[in-house]
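Quick illustration, no need to memorize.
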Amino acid sequence: MNNNISKCWPAVLLLLTLVSTDSAQADEDDAFSLVTSASWQYQDNVLYLPDGQKPTFFGPDAPRGDHNYNASVGLNFDKRIGRQQFSANATRSMVRYNNLDVLDYDGHNAFASWKWQAGNDFSGQLRYTSRRYLQGFGDFRTTTPAKNLVDLETLRFDAAYVVDAYWTVFGALSQDSVRNELRVRQGSDSDTDRIEAGLRYTTRGGTAFELLGRDTQGNFPKRLAGLNVTNSFSQKDLEARVRWQPVGHSRLSASIGQSNRKHDEVPQRDYEDVFGRVSWEWQPTGHLGVNFQAERQISALEDLLSSYFRTTTYTIAPIWQATGKLRVDGRLQWVSRDGNGETFFSQLSPALQAQLGIAGASARQEDITTYSLGATWAIQRNLTANAELRHDSRDSNVQFYQYRVRSLSMSLQYLF
């Protein structure tokens, strides 16, 4: 028996033992609950390599495809005290691959939340999250792929004040910290501070209009500024939103905004562009629903010839509640990403670009297609099973970024 598989059997047996032990179930009023899960996944291209390429850097017989096992255990806390709601979770996970065991890792996911209420008009939430996970290989591209574990921490404080029946003032403060274990990725370590403030108007019919402003200050603590590299940025966003429910089985939401990003050390990388989103949730029957979404996002890009990605996404996500215990979910998504903006190198003369070997190079353009079909089965009150088939592909004008990935995953979760 493969050694990695044998390592996961104790966790799987533990889960099955918990399922069969009725006495272990907690009372619905208990503040604490325990969640255990076990999952299996097969991917035919674990490292998201271009067609025909094999991971020979892991050995002459290293396969493109592999399956992994994930066992996790988590403790939940949920308690209401007066008008205050306290919640927390701490989950540890163990992921083991059958052949590519260089990718084995232990991760965690934790959060603590306080939903507070002061009087009838003042409310909000204080939330902390911490996560450790394996960075995916879709956008993390190196000539020799390696395991990179990422630690992500977020602290966020939200508050809202109801002025009257129509007007609400709201705002938020947040801090994000990203740390990479792999040395080659530590230049992407970042600390980000955000301040948000907004105003909401709600009509008698329930339609909500919002205007939101956001100021973001970012820092890359392990990066030295250079000709095309920045170690800090500032960004200002202004966004308008609307949420409307025209009839009982439809909900519409939309937003439009503008981002303006500045880099003190490398002003050539500054950019300004428009973003937005339109979403329609339609539930024609009690068993069938569909979510349609179109979105345009703006995100920074570390590239020689472009300073940001303009990303357009179209998503169709149907849901079919076949029975009271069986739900089927589908997803079809098409993403177009286009490199935009100027850099230090894109502004050089053609002669200098030729000397640097980038003459004639073009900004990255790529199309990403994802479709999946999954089912969730509520076997018992506290026992849930899930299975999913998924296909991901990316076509790019740079062959290095292309991939095709097909996967099958199954999981079992028990809450007690």
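Residues 42 and 67 are 4 Å apart (CA to CA).
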